[in-house]
Amino acid sequence: xxxxxxxxxxxxxxxxxxxxxxxxxxxxxxxxxxxxxxxxxxxxxxxxxxxxxxxxxxxxxxxxxxxxxxxxxxxxxxxxxxxxxxxxxxxxxxxxxxxxxxxxxxxxxxxxxxxxxxxxxxxxxxxxxxxxxxxxxxxxxxxxxxxxxxxxxxxxxxxxxxxxxxxxxxxxxxxxxxxxxxxxxxxxxxxxxxxxxxxxxxxxxxxxxxxxxxxxxxxxxxxxxxxxxxxxxxxxxxxxxxxxxxxxxxxxxxxxxxxxxxxxxxxxxxxxxxxxxxxxxxxxxxxxxxxxxxxxxxxxxxxxxxxxxxxxxxxxxxxxxxxxxxxxxxxxxxxxxxxxxxxxxxxxxxxxxxxxxxxxxxx
Length: 363
Hints:
By secondary structure, the protein is of the alpha/beta class. The protein has 2 domains: 10-70 and 175-362, QueA-like; 74-161, Beta Barrel (Thrombin, subunit H), CATH 2.40.10.240. 19% of the residues lie in helices and 26% in strands. It is built from 6 helices and 17 strands. The chain has helices at 154-161, 202-210, 249-260, 270-285, 325-334, 336-348; strands spanning 34-38, 45-49, 62-66, 68-70, 74-79, 85-95, 98-104, 114-118, 130-138, 144-148, 187-190, 214-220, 243-247, 265-268, 295-299, 314-318, 359-362. The strands form 3 sheets. The protein has a 9-stranded mixed sheet with strand order 2-1-17-16-14-3-12-13-15, covered by helices on one side. Helix 5 crosses helix 6. The two termini are 33 Å apart.
């Protein structure tokens, strides 16, 4: 008889968190955050500072980081004809001048509505400091398609007009927007940071390299699902929003070499896990002889308990929102009972949660 995995219920991934535990600002320096060590083999838990992660890495380990960079994706504008205020959050590029966006107030913007997006605080008089977008369709995930006027360098114009969006649970502005970027962020495209990487400093990266640890960089542009709780009762019925992912030939070769030589692959963040597992799944479907092949394209991989990991031996991650796909992923990796206990310990030990919060190392 074939084993059947019963899909978990979404309510099983709810937990109570005091509002004061949601980090509103990052600690300084970056690597001064707390680090919880969670040992999957025996279920033990220990506590360190993030800078101490060096002590738990081995020569030959391969750390895989998501080098996606957060774009200034939040735009403000006015509806042509009425002057009504409009806010748009760019989610993913759908064409040279077309983006999927979350738009407010969405109900007032019918197809064909034209919006002039301007720099915050601008009166809109300077036509060189604005860009026009036309609303022309809806997406299955609840967004709108916006086609921007492609005059000149539209990407440069959008970058000048937009601001980096912070998560909805962060209510304080950042003095330095770069603090919501990893120090290795390079490829523009995300609407949220791969937050597990926010704890690294240039000095810490050098200390890790000096220990004989290698780095590999993948790209997964983070989109809608990062802040969306799962709404369906049965986890398996949740539909992930597709995100662009890239794992190059060079990185594929690095990963396969690590696998052949028995070295650990350590994912820095859940987005790195999803990139790695997407590539490994594609390789398996193609009948590849090795675990990884290069991967470029869209992924809607959804990892929850019952998933069989192909690509990851250890994971660095932050503490995630209740009922989120990210919490389900780490529960799949370490076991739900252990993650439940780790989160209860984090609350009891005054850990800081979510994007600017503390981290855990699941080994």
